[in-house]
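Supplementary Note 2. Why include the ligand at all?

Several targets in our set were suspected to adopt different conformations when bound, so apo predictions alone were not considered sufficient. For every target with a known small-molecule partner we therefore ran a joint prediction. The input for PMV is given below.
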Amino acid sequence: MTKESSPGTARAVAHANIALAKYWGKSERGDNLTAVPSLSLTLDALTTRSQVSFDASLKSDEVILGGKTLGGRELTRVTELLDRVRKAAGESRFARVDSINNFPTAAGLASSASGFAALAVAARAAAGLPASDKDASKLARQSSASAARSIFEGFVELLEDTDSAEPVAPSSHFDVCMLVAIVQQERKDVSSTGGMEQTRLTSPYYRGWLEAAPPLFREIKQALLARDFERLAWGMERSTLLMHASMFGADPPIVYFKPTSVELIHAIKNRRAGGHPEAFTLDAGPNVKVLTLASHAAKTEEFLLRVPGVTRVIVCRPGPRAALLSLDGPLSEARRTDAAP
Ligand code: PMV
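The joint prediction is reproduced in token form.
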């Protein structure tokens, strides 16, 4: 069959990641590059699976997420990624994209990170582009900067003004768990992209954030490499609060915290002072993620489930890299082929 008559289809899985050292703000150089460096942990339990089929019978791209057809800005973001792939591969056909998350979408759970990473890997393979972590990470980053990090396993960095993320340490480096305490499952009001831009344009504290983030990133990376939980806890909480402080200073202000988020911040701080190895972080949403040692995860989970307002807790271990999936059977059950993206 010729390329034009046979649908080029591929499937991929990617895992969400949560930043220990946050990025917030885009570089003045454009192309969705980040203004500050970030360092994340890929999470095994939060996945997006995506199937991409280039098909000559389609009149436009069709994108389905969790059984719902996307339109508007959400569709455009996917189409823009597909356009970049089409250009690189000399592919003229439109594509059908089917994606499923195994967790709530757009509630500060990094669904865009796993989503665009899975899409980038599947779309490149479907278009016949050669496997390349660097190129898959760049492609994902151009749509959602945090997605660049979800190409890799374990601990991953994305430096400022840099095209692709890089692995820092494998999943086995540090025996930790990240517990995601869900306080709200609904979609957030302010997107991360819109929130960053509003912060950059209106917050007097944005400049302070840009100054503080790079040295803090270096401290967090050193603490991680030394497996120094106390120092890592200090750094990641400081990164979280400096980032949110820059948002509080925006006009209109951006406040992702809910009462339960604030309650958990206080509780984790007190528990750590009382000897529990736990540290909090929050992204562009009210859910609180708690880092702890794997040996302590059951105690942390038990505590979080007792907090009124916490509706669910997802216990995550350091997760694997993004990978292609077999085309056999339903997307939700396809197995990793472990070919590089
Ligand atoms: O790249 P985005 O649009 O997914 O924004 C991610 C921003 C934060 O999650 C708040 C921080 C980070 O580094 O992941």
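The chain is about 35% helix and 25% strand. The helical segments are 72-89, 111-126, 133-143, 192-202, 206-225, 229-248, 259-273, 297-306. Comparable summaries for the other entries are listed in the accompanying table.
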